[in-house]
């Protein structure tokens, strides 16, 4: 058994040249299985609750000096949502103001094709995770920039399927 804990503190936190904290997140996704076990083309996304409330969002957190953006996206997915998978090509970069801190941030988002859901993960006692279809996920996601990332991801997938 491996013991996983969340990173804490801001000692290794990255900031851009304008002093904005850099955060990285991902959209964990899978294709729904039918009752007979075959994989369908229906996309599901995994959202998590915020630590302090019932608001829903995709996993995200600080990008630290000792990791790539992709490594940070995977780490946040494990810590906050308890999922492991393949980090795919970046969806984009957004600038936003944190409602809770009133600070400017630079956020990067990636799709994450989920390969494994962990039974135990660092933040399982402070967050709940929920699989939803894309429309439900977009409706409940609290952050406008994450909704934009989801739209870009869905558009990217639909262009690949044509």
**CATH architectural label:** Alpha-Beta Complex
Q: Proportion of β residues?
A: 35-45%
Low-confidence stretches: none
Shape: globular
Spatial extent as radius of gyration: 16 Å
Distance between the termini: 43 Å
Number of strands: 8
CATH superfamily: Nucleoside Triphosphate Pyrophosphohydrolase
CATH C-level class: Alpha Beta
Q: What is the percent of helical residues?
A: 10-25%
Averaging pLDDT over every residue, what do you get?
A: 91
- What would the CATH topology be? Nucleoside Triphosphate Pyrophosphohydrolase
Task: Supply the number of helical segments.
Answer: 3
Tally of structural domains: 1
Order of helices and strands: EEEEHEEEEHH
Taking the sheet with the most strands, its summary is:
8 strands, mixed
Helix/strand class:
alpha+beta
Features:
single chain; 162 residues; alpha+beta; Nucleoside Triphosphate Pyrophosphohydrolase; 3 helices; 8 strands; 23% helix
Give an overview of the whole structure.
The chain has one domain: Nucleoside Triphosphate Pyrophosphohydrolase (Alpha-Beta Complex). It has 3 helices and 8 strands; from the N terminus they run E-E-E-E-H-E-E-E-E-H-H. It has helices at residues 69-81, 134-140, 144-160; strands spanning 21-33, 39-49, 56-57, 60-62, 83-87, 92-97, 104-117, 129-133. 28% of the residues are buried. The model has no long low-confidence stretch (mean pLDDT 91). Its cofactor is Mn(2+); Mg(2+). One of its GO terms (molecular function) is pyrophosphatase activity. Belongs to the Nudix hydrolase family.
């Amino acid at each position: 058994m491996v013991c996983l804990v969340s990173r804490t503190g801001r000692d290794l936190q990255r900031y851009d040249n304008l002093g904005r904290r850099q955060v990285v997140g991902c959209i964990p996704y899978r294709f729904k299985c039918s009752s007979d076990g075959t994989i369908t083309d229906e996309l599901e996304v995994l959202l998590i609750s915020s630590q302090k409330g019932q608001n829903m969002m995709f996993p995200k957190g600080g990008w630290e000096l000792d990791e790539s953006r992709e490594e940070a996206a995977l780490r946040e997915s494990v810590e906050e949502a308890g999922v492991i998978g393949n980090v795919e090509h970046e969806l984009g970069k957004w600038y936003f103001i944190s409602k809770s801190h009133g600070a400017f941030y630079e956020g990067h988002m990636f799709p994450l094709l989920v390969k494994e859901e962990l039974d135990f993960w660092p933040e399982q006692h402070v967050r709940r995770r929920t699989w939803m279809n894309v429309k439900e996920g977009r409706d409940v996601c609290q952050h406008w920039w994450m909704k934009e990332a989801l739209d870009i991801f869905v558009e990217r997938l639909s262009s690949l399927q044509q």
